[in-house]
C-alpha cells in the first residue's frame, strides 16, 4: 500500500527526495482526479481544475519539455480574468498581456530545467508535479517570488524576470523545486496525515511571523530539499565560480534560518509520522 511506502520514506535516510515515491503519489492523485472530474494529465489546466470542467478553455502560452529522459512537458498557462483577480487578492502580481515575451519565458524555463536535470531526483519531482506553470511578476530583479495552492495538485506559480539575470537559472530552478516540494508534501499529507492540530504557533524565519505548525513544517521540508539540491550541484563540480559562490551562500543562509526553529518533533500538534518527519528534517 502507498501509505506503507510513505511511512517508510519518512524514516529513510534519503531525505526529501524519497526515490520512487513521487511517481506513485502523483499516479494516485491522477486516478482520483480522473474519476471525479474526467481530467487526465494531458487535459489538466488550472482553470479547468478550479471550475471542474475538462472542456473549459485552457489558454496555453507555450509548452516546454521537462527533459530528454521522459515525455513530460510543462504547460505555461495564462489565467482567465476571474482567476487572475482571485490570486491577485492573495498578493500575487501578474504581467499584463505582451509585457513579457513568450520566447524569454521559454528560454529562462529551459535554463532552469537544465539545472534541475543535473540532479535526477529534482527533475523527477518536477516532471511529476509541475504540470502547469503560471508566470508571476516579481517586485524587482532582487526579488524571487513563487506560490502554490494546496488545492491545485499540479500547478505552480513562478516569478520570471523580464531580463536575464546573473545565476537566474539557479534562482528560477529553486522557485520551481520549492513549489514542487510543497505539492509533494501536500500529497504525502493526503495519504499519511502529519498534523492533527493547530494550537501552537512558531516563529517562521522566512515570513518573520508566528505561524501554525503545518506552515513551519512545510517550510522546513522545502528548504531542506533546496539545500539538498544545491549540495548535489556543488558535488558535481559543473558550476562556474560565481555559481559556486552563490550556492555556498544560499546553503549557508538556509542553514542559519533553520537554526532559529526549535525542535518541532515534540509538538502535540503533530501525528506520530509528523514527529518523525520533523526529527529527520532537523538533521539536515
Largest sheet: 5 strands, mixed
Shape: globular
Average predicted local confidence, pLDDT: 93
Helix content: 40-55%
Radius of gyration equals 18 Å
Number of helices: 10
Across the major sheet, the strand order is 1-2-3-5-4
Protein structure class: alpha/beta
The proportion of residues in beta strands is 5-15%
State the distance separating the first and last CA atoms: 28 Å
The string of secondary-structure elements, in order, is HHHEEHHHEEEHEEHHH
Please give the number of β-strands. 7
Unreliable runs: none
Please characterize this protein's 3D structure.
There is one protein chain. The protein is of the alpha/beta class and 284 residues long. Helix content is 51%, strand content 11%. It is built from ten helices and seven strands. It is globular and about 50 Å long.
Summary?
The protein is of the alpha/beta class. The chain is 51% helix and 11% strand. The strands form 2 sheets. Strands 1-2-3-5-4 form a 5-stranded mixed beta sheet, covered by helices on one side. The chain has a two-stranded antiparallel sheet with strand order 6-7.
Architecture blueprint of SSEs:
Elements lengths: L1 H10 L9 H17 L8 H6 L7 E7 L7 E6 L2 H8 L13 H15 L3 H10 L2 E5 L9 E2 L7 E5 L8 H24 L9 E3 L6 E3 H24 L4 H19 L12 H11 L2
Parallel strand pairs: 2-3, 3-5
Antiparallel strand pairs: 1-2, 4-5, 6-7
Helix pairs in contact: 2-7, 5-7, 6-7, 7-8, 8-9
Descriptive key words:
alpha/beta, two-stranded antiparallel ribbon, 11% strand, globular
Amino acid at each position: 500500500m502507498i501509505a506503507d511506502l510513505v511511512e517508510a520514506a519518512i524514516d529513510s535516510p534519503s531525505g526529501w527526495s524519497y526515490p520512487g515515491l513521487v511517481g506513485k503519489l502523483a499516479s494516485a492523485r491522477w486516478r482520483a482526479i480522473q474519476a471525479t472530474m474526467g481530467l487526465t494529465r494531458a487535459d489538466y489546466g488550472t482553470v479547468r481544475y478550479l471550475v471542474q470542467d475538462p472542456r473549459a478553455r485552457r489558454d496555453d502560452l507555450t509548452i516546454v519539455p521537462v527533459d530528454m529522459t521522459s515525455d513530460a512537458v510543462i504547460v505555461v498557462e495564462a489565467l482567465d480574468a476571474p482567476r487572475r483577480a482571485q490570486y491577485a487578492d492573495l498578493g500575487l502580481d501578474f504581467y499584463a498581456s505582451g509585457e513579457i515575451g513568450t520566447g524569454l519565458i521559454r528560454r529562462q524555463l529551459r535554463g532552469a530545467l537544465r539545472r534541475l536535470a543535473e540532479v535526477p531526483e529534482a527533475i523527477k519531482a518536477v516532471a511529476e508535479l509541475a504540470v502547469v506553470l503560471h508566470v508571476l511578476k516579481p517586485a524587482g530583479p532582487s526579488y524571487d517570488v513563487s506560490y502554490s495552492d494546496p488545492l491545485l495538485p499540479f500547478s505552480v506559480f513562478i516569478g520570471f524576470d523580464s531580463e536575464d539575470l546573473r545565476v537566474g537559472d539557479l534562482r528560477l530552478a529553486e522557485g520551481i523545486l520549492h513549489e514542487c516540494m510543497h505539492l509533494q508534501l501536500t500529497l504525502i499529507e493526503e495519504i499519511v496525515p502529519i498534523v492533527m492540530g493547530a494550537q501552537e504557533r512558531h516563529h517562521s524565519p522566512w515570513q518573520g511571523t508566528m505561524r501554525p505548525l503545518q506552515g513551519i513544517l512545510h517550510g522546513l521540508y522545502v528548504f531542506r530539499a533546496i539545500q539538498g539540491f544545491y549540495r548535489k550541484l556543488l558535488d558535481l563540480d559543473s558550476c562556474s565560480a560565481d555559481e559556486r559562490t552563490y550556492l555556498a551562500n544560499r546553503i549557508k543562509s538556509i542553514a542559519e534560518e533553520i537554526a532559529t526553529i526549535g525542535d518541532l518533533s515534540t509538538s502535540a500538534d503533530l501525528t506520530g509520522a509528523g514527529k518523525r518527519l520533523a526529527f529527520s528534517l532537523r538533521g539536515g
